[in-house]
Amino acid sequence: MSKKFNIAIAGATGAVGIEMIKTLEHRQFPTKNLKLLASKRSIGKTLAYDGQDIVIEELDHDSFNDIDIALFSAGGSRSKEFAPSAVKSGAVVIDNSSAFRMDHDVPLVVPEVNPEAVKRHQGIIANPNCTTIILLVVLKPLYDISRITRIIVSTYQSASGAGAKAMEELSMQTSQVLENSELTIDAFPHQIAFNLFSHNSTIFDNGYCEEEQKMINESRKILNDQSLQICPTTIRVPILRAHAESVVIEQERKVSVEEANKILSAAPGVKIVDDRSNNYFPMPIDVNGQDFVAVGRIRDDVSSDKGLSFFICGDQLLKGAALNAVQIAELL
Question: Catalytic annotation on 199?
């Protein structure tokens, strides 16, 4: 790419915003100017990018003059407030919140899965939920060879999905437990250190939480398959920044373990980690800071004649958020 672009990051000081800055630099995105935007309390602070210290500015409706691409990770309410102003100024918004994901006119994009959807944007492109991204990077190659009819997925979600404060709370509580001192419980509703609990999002009347409903709705939209049956269970675990998911799928025809391995070994953004002899499979610690989604424990579902089961891990801050957003910018 010879052309260079003016980029803005809204929510630059958050956990995902920091990773967006690093990812733009790491992937050598053709950046002419980078504008970092955050709330009032961050004005005047600096963050490093490509050998220079960039001063953080306050996010407002006039922040996007001359901006080509605006990466938003400032929360849903701020996306709804400021993204229209960015579009009005001529920028294309790539939004990491849930604000626009299910809007019919907004593409919901995972570049390895549905890159063609980018062409339909009307100024805003939505980044899917982290659990959905990590799941579909692995499922789409299998879906393409035989339509997936049913998914049962249990997630093991890291603290990073709740932001930088939640990560700090996990670290702090770990020390507090080991030192037998009073626990600080603020970012999460329950103790996260040495514990796990159902995802801390709203529980609906059907018994599913908001995070689980996101996985259902977003997967159907991205795969353009409203009849896809999905049963998710989402759990918070005391891991800093990588999500894991236990997945069982049923397909229209039986796909063998051998065929699945062959397909996944050639799939973009996927790395097979499946060493049965050494009992070595995907682990959160091994995908920290990595761009790929690891998949392993690939085996027949012994309860279904058309089923497969496997275990996946991906960095929530990277492929689950910042990297996916930058990849969408690369498509643009």
Answer: no
pLDDT over threshold 60, residue 314: yes
Rounded Cα distance, 282 and 330, in Å: 28
Query: What b/e sequence results for 111-129 when a residue is b if at least 16 CB atoms lie within 10 Å of its CB, and e otherwise?
Result: bbbbbebbeebebbbbbbb
Phi, psi of 14 (to 5 degrees): -75, 175
Q: In Å, what is the CA distance from 56 to each residue of 32, 47, 77, 92, 100?
A: 17, 7, 20, 21, 26
> How would residue 183 be classed by pLDDT, with cut points 50, 70 and 90?
very high
Ranges of CATH 3.30.360.10 domains, the chain: 132-316
What are the residue ranges of CATH 3.40.50.720 in the chain?
5-127+322-331
User: Are the C-beta atoms of residues 14 and 41 closer than 8 Å to each other?
Assistant: no
Catalytic-labelled residue, pool 130, 199, 209, 313: 130
DSSP code of 321?
Answer: I
- d(CA 125, CA 255) in angstroms, rounded, equals 33
Q: Between β-strands 229-236 and 197-198, what pairing exists: parallel, antiparallel or unpaired?
A: antiparallel
Q: Is 121 a catalytic residue?
A: no
Helix (H) or strand (E) holding 18: helix 15-26
pLDDT at 1 exceeding the cut of 60? no
Q: How would DSSP label each residue in 82-142? A: HHHHHHHTTPEEEE-SSSSTT-TTS-B--TTT-GGGGGG-SSEEEPPPHHHHHHHHHHHHH
Task: Locate the DSSP E strands across 168-283.
Answer: 197-198, 229-236, 242-251, 270-272
- Beta carbons of 56 and 78 less than 8 angstroms apart: no
Which residue among 121, 199, 243, 313 is the active-site one?
243
Which CATH class for the 5-127+322-331 domain?
Answer: alpha beta
State the pTM of this model: 0.95
Answer yes or no: CATH 3.10.310.10 is held by domain 132-316. Answer: no
Q: In sequence order, which residues have a C-beta less than 8 Å from that of residue 197 and are 6 or more positions away?
A: 188, 189, 190, 235, 236
Looking up tokens 């961050």 gives 42
